[in-house]
Design brief:
The chain is built from three helices and three strands; from the N terminus they run βαβαβα. By secondary structure, it is an alpha/beta fold. The chain has one domain: 3-Layer(aba) Sandwich (Rossmann fold), CATH 3.40.50.450. It has a three-stranded parallel sheet. Helix 2 links the parallel strand 2 and strand 3. The protein starts with 6 loop residues before the first strand and ends with a helix.
Amino acid sequence: MIASCDILIANLSPFRGPEPDSGTVWEVGYAQGLGKKVLAYSSDVRTLKERTQAMLQLGASGTDQEGMVIEDFGLTHNLMFAHLVVSDSLEGCLRECGKDEKEKL
């Protein structure tokens, strides 16, 4: 299905933790590898650091319980995916798809 699509719209909302579903992340990478246009949305637009701190009940130290640094680029997702997120909802993402298609005309 991905190989035959024109555009992939991915839900990168947190899934069982602060990060998106790993299967969805794989599909996004696969689609990008095929040269497909990929847009994404996420219901949680806090930064990755804020989400991780909240879900793990961490303070403002910037590290987890094991002393590992939490990625802090001020982005909503991992650096490789953050710029794919164009909306906080599927509807908003579809509007962005429509804008892109109108610009092609």
